[in-house]
Design goal:
Blueprint: H1 3-36, E1 41-44, H2 52-58, E2 68-71, E3 83-85, E4 98-104, H3 113-126, E5 127-133, H4 140-144, E6 150-155, E7 158-163
Parallel strand pairs: 1-2, 1-4, 2-3, 4-5
Antiparallel strand pairs: 6-7
């Protein structure tokens, strides 16, 4: 294997480890906030989403299920006692139902900035606090992922959506 490929794989591996660590840390913050407010933790984008077979073999989940799990794919929230099959732009929960909503690696899959803005409004509608995780712009796999339509990032305390 040539050096460039080795270093590229090492680089991407480090980015993925950083993202996995962030997912766990932010999930714990969201869980803590929901408990503090004595309200449910809503997870949007189930931990079972994506590569089901590989995740089952490795017994890997990206994060916890929360008290309520929302995903467009019914298989993504199999670990939840309260799964909801719905789009992130239209979640059938009452206003401020949750103390916190945790959404990881979801918003970048929306087709347009308009859809992401609708989702962002919906997330803020259903919970007191929103905790988001999104792919690092430095990640090679984020650049190559065919279903990533947007870049999501925070700038000056604001969430920014940028069409790719």
């Amino acid at each position: 294997m040539n050096k460039l490929l080795k270093y590229t794989l090492l680089y991407e591996g480090l980015i993925q480890l950083k993202e996995a660590s962030e997912r766990g840390y932010v999930y714990q913050l969201a869980e803590q906030k929901a408990k503090e407010l004595n309200k449910p933790l809503i997870v949007v984008g189930g931990p079972e989403g994506g590569n089901y077979i590989l995740k089952q073999i490795l017994k890997y989940t990206a994060h916890g299920c929360g008290d309520v799990c929302v995903d467009i794919d019914p298989k993504a929230c199999v670990c939840s006692n309260f799964p909801i099959v719905a789009s992130v732009t239209n979640i059938p929960l009452p206003d401020k139902y949750g103390g916190a909503v945790y959404v990881a690696h979801v918003l970048e899959h929306l087709p347009t900035i308009y859809d992401a803005q609708l989702a962002w409004q919906e997330l803020n509608r259903i919970a007191d606090y929103v905790f988001i995780i999104y792919p690092d712009k430095l990640s090679i796999s984020a650049w190559l992922h065919p279903d990533h339509h947007l870049w999501v990032y925070e700038q000056n305390g604001q969430v920014v959506f940028e069409q790719r």
